[in-house]
């Protein structure tokens, strides 16, 4: 699968686009408007020094070649016209994902395989809306995909085993370590472990137990971990925890969502990629 279309150019969508292009794939980046897509050039300039820092084989020439393999489009039919694989990275709401896949299913060529990058939702809740459930599954990436390079592949009962293996092979081709999930699991392996940890940090904050800095410091000193929960929130970006918290039935997670909207999102502090979240990265 050489031709990839990525739906959504947010924090993780843009990383998937760039990593696939860096690995030699031709990539179409789709989003709702040309205004949104116009910001991607700045995003590539943000990612390039991170690749140079973290990947021994990265060179300016290879990074420029990756950018040259990326085409943008705000026309969904155009974006899908020659796609071998579509990876969806739209907001983490079931209704948005279902309606997105309905449109994609109507427009994509018969050859196209469909994958969601959803971090919490099950493929079986989306598959019926695609029109080709046998070609639909999940391919989930960790944030900072070039460095934390797992690709969790999770189908549903109706996923064609050959499609499952083709997507696992694609993940390997773009530098991921394929993790085959044998049974549907909300949160896969990674987020089944990570989300309770992040939620614990959020609860300590909203209960007034300690500051984000001291919560992170405690975890890092006591365990030797490189990052604490609020540093991880900054890498993920504020919108995902806000959306998950706002839709949660847990009052403390709802309170956390309201807190980060009021204190961070409304001020434009959207996380590390934006220069500021719980921490200020503007001086780095």
TrEMBL record:
One of its GO terms (molecular function) is (3S)-3-hydroxyacyl-CoA dehydrogenase (NAD+) activity. The lineage of its organism: Bacteria, Bacillati, Actinomycetota, Actinomycetes, Micrococcales. It catalyses: a (3S)-3-hydroxyacyl-CoA + NAD(+) = a 3-oxoacyl-CoA + NADH + H(+). Keywords: Fatty acid metabolism, Lipid metabolism, NAD, Oxidoreductase. Pathway: Lipid metabolism; fatty acid beta-oxidation; Lipid metabolism; butanoate metabolism. Residues 4-183 form the 3-hydroxyacyl-CoA dehydrogenase NAD binding domain. Its EC number is 1.1.1.35. Residues 187-281 form the 3-hydroxyacyl-CoA dehydrogenase C-terminal domain. The keyword NAD applies. This is 3-hydroxyacyl-CoA dehydrogenase. Signal peptide: none annotated. Transmembrane segments: none annotated.
């Amino acid at each position: 699968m050489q031709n990839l279309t990525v739906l959504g150019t947010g924090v993780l969508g843009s990383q998937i686009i760039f990593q696939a292009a860096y690995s030699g794939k031709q990539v179409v980046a789709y989003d709702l408007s040309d205004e949104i897509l116009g910001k991607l050039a700045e995003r590539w300039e943000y990612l390039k020094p991170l690749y140079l820092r973290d990947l021994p084989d990265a060179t300016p020439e290879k990074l420029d070649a990756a950018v040259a393999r990326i085409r943008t489009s705000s026309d969904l039919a155009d974006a899908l016209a020659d796609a071998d694989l579509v990876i969806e990275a739209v907001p983490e709401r079931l209704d948005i994902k279902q309606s997105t896949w309905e449109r994609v299913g109507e427009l994509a060529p018969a050859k196209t395989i469909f994958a969601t990058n959803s971090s919490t939702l099950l493929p079986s809740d989306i598959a019926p809306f695609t029109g080709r459930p046998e070609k639909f599954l999940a391919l989930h990436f960790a944030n900072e995909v070039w460095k934390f390079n797992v690709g969790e592949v999770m189908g549903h009962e109706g996923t064609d085993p050959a499609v499952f293996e083709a997507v696992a092979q694609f993940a390997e081709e773009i530098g991921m370590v394929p993790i085959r999930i044998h049974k549907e699991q909300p949160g896969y392996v990674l987020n089944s472990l990570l989300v309770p940890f992040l939620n614990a940090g959020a609860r300590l904050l909203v209960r007034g137990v300690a500051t984000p800095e001291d919560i992170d410091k405690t975890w890092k000193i006591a365990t030797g971990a490189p990052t604490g929960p609020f540093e991880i929130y900054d890498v993920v970006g504020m919108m995902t925890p806000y959306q998950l918290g706002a839709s949660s039935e847990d009052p403390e997670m709802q309170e956390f969502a309201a807190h980060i909207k009021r204190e961070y999102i409304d001020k434009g502090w959207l996380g590390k990629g934006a220069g500021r979240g719980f921490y200020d990265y503007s001086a780095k």
